[in-house]
Amino acid sequence: MVRALYCCMAGADVSLLPPGVGSSSSSLWDLMGNAMVMTQYVRLTPDMQSKQGAVWNRVPCYLRDWEMQVHFKIHGQGKKNLNGDGFAIWYTKDRMQPGPVFGSKDNFVGLGVFVDTYPNEEKQQERVFPYISAMVSNGSLTYDHNRDGRPTELGGCTAMVRNLNHDTFLVIRYVKRRLTIMIDIDGKHEWRDCIDMAGVHLPRGYFFGTSSVTGDLSDNHDIISLKLYQLTVERSPAEEKRDKEVFLPVVDNMKLPGVEAPLEPMSGLALFLIVFFSLVALVFAIVIGVIVYNKWQQQSRKRFY
Ligand SMILES: [Ca+2]
């Protein structure tokens, strides 16, 4: 597998610029809401109530296999669970659309990865927050904020990422229809598995972005850098066939409410057989009908004489 830096965003000198570009007029990134460019990072939200901010790439991504490395920092005054709400990383069809899912629109089309710092659902004894989860939607799914997205999540892991003195990273890797999310949050420069799922179909040409929201509770949600890598992998002919272009995000063998597996288009032979046997049955029914009608007429004539 060959990895090449494709596009990035970083605070400091190259704020919001892809590598090799030195003019702010050609920025490939847009800010939204309360997001601010600082010297070393982009602050999606400050540690204040009811803020929301986002940063989105302007260029649709046509990479087939890719990796997005997110260097982030979440910190604030809130103690224990009195902080929120976290941030999301997006690969979606729409961009720059504010809404209720970590500051971005609901019923999105694409992938959302959530770093959720506040447990909204009360009965969360078995789940320790902050919690990272992922969701793939074709637009029909709603993120259940009151249940921290549990009904629609693909998987997840606990990640103690607040108020740390060392760097914290998250990586989303998409290779051969396999979605892998790993974290490096312990200051040991080691990737730890969080989510690993095969059979994830994501169309090309969507946008990368990240968004965050605060409510009654708040945190600073800082993005230090976003680095998109192009991955080059070899595929067997069978994998080429399997990984053909898709037009709606879908996950294999995933039974989610509102997600119907797309019906296979009927083959020509099946259609021919259905029409053929329907015609045979119709002719058979007409012949039987005529015979019964003739018998009935003969019998009624007999009754007259
Ligand atoms: Ca939550």
UniProtKB/TrEMBL annotation:
Record-given protein name: Lectin, mannose binding 2 like
Transmembrane spans: 269-293
Organism: Pelodiscus sinensis (Chinese softshell turtle)
Main location: membrane
Topology with respect to the bilayer: Single-pass type I membrane protein; Single-pass membrane protein
L-type lectin-like domain ranges (all copies): 8-231
GO molecular function, one term: metal ion binding
GO biological process, one term: protein transport
